[in-house]
């Protein structure tokens, strides 16, 4: 089965989004070298946000490359197809935005985005994984 056009569009957008992760790496390098002021919380959250963005974008591309074989429909298709890509936006945003400001001592309310992203990635992985597994077993 060929990759559907809507999956190709999202994959193309995700590949372009990886360029923002690359520029984020430049920022992170400046933070770690001391060129940009950041406290320990900010450094660790910036690192975590950067890593989660990259991994979740690549994982999204992998899932979108095979999800059409799962024959999901309705809400299951939406969750399986877009859960991990949504998390690729929400989780890094939660890390970055919850550590903004001068010398934050703890994460702010934007930390909620991280937990919404955790829910999205978990739901997306379970639905896509089960759908793809069922499709594989059915094809035997």
Characterization of the model:
With 140 residues, the chain is an all-alpha fold. It has one domain. It contains four helices and no strands. Helix 1 runs antiparallel to helix 2. The radius of gyration is 17 Å and the shape is elongated.
Keywords:
140 residues; mainly alpha
What topology emerges from the helices and strands here?
Layout: H1 5-33, H2 40-66, H3 74-97, H4 111-138
Transmembrane segments: 6-28, 49-67, 79-100, 112-137
Keywords: Membrane, Transmembrane, Transmembrane helix
| Unreliable residue stretches | none
Query: How many structural domains does the protein architecture include?
Result: 1
Order of helices and strands: HHHH
How many strands, what sense, and barrel or not for the largest sheet?
none
Q: What fraction, in percent, of the residue positions are helical?
A: over 70%
The number of strands is: 0
From the spread of the alpha carbons, the general shape counts as elongated
Range of strand content: under 5%
Question: What average pLDDT do the residues reach?
Answer: 94
Given helix and strand content, the structural type is: mainly alpha
Number of helices: 4
Q: Give the C-alpha Rg.
A: 17 Å
| End-to-end Cα distance | 16 Å
